[in-house]
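This follows on from our talk about sequence and fold. Please put the record directly below this note.
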Amino acid sequence: MSEGATTAYAAAGVDIAAGERAVELMKRHVARTRRPELVPDASGFSGLFRLDLAKYTAPVLATSTDGVGTKVMLAQELDRHDTIGIDLVAMVVDDLVVSGAEPLFLTDYIACGSVVPERIAEIVGGIAEGCCQAGCTLIGGETAEHPGAMGPDEYDLAGAGTGIVEADAILGPDRVRPGDVVVAMASSGPHSNGYSLIRRVVADAGLDLRAEVPELGGELGAVLLTPTRIYARDCLALAAAVEVHAFAHITGGGLAANLARSLPDTVDAVLDRATWTPDPVFGFIAEHGSISREDMEATFNMGVGMVAVVAEDAAERALAVLAERGVPSWVLGSVVPGSGRAVLTGDHR
């Protein structure tokens, strides 16, 4: 591009030099995620990944794409950008692993009103940390500057991931049967769902995001920005150790709706609220927003971020495996003959 064109582009609001500096700053983060299958591409136009087909009999690729929703607006308001990338990775890889797929690599896309290299590097640092937690490579990405379409401090991000699973090891509804046990894995908070409602509650109740809230154990904004727990490696370890029939990633729509997606239409999952106490943040949101239990459960994970449906005789071992990996878990309910529903009963402790 000629100097005149570069100057004209800058006048339109696009800073090419800032974009190049952002790329340099993020390189060290990306390097942390490298898997041995990564193939260098000197041009940088695409990411290359070599599949070791000798490891598989009938490999099936899985793919998932997602974003972080309006949680990014909270990060922008608080000017804290180092964990929102973890949320992005979690939303992608924890969907991939539901089928039993191991996440291999991820690409990201960041759109912003103005490229601030240090801020972009913070975001990518979080994405890299998430990839390290999930065991996948950040194979490539794109940062796009959209002056006029977005404010200077605004950004949004999305990601797409690819995983692999043996054809005869794909998990899902066809494996679930009466007598199976439903095991819950604790969430780290609201994860990345329901933030449009959370932001409305904060605004309508006049809450200060920077205020300390003793019952939540810290600053309100920091608690709400707690990154989404990444379960991918824990789920893979669980499936390798015990007979897992299905997983369900509990995202938008809540526990019952998401678990129902992993059930055949011949069974129900009966879940007992008395088996757990939701994190205080959910009670805080419900109280300050005057939100009913029905609406809370239809919006938030309420403390359950991932569910495993395991064979009846595998439940005790499943809990032990998850405990060894530091994942709080408990028996949430059981599978009975039915019509494909997940039904919550009782009251929380």
Q: What stands out?
A: The radius of gyration is 21 Å. DSSP finds twelve helices and 14 strands in the chain. Residues 173-345 form a domain with the Phosphoribosyl-aminoimidazole Synthetase; Chain A, domain 2 fold (CATH 3.90.650.10).
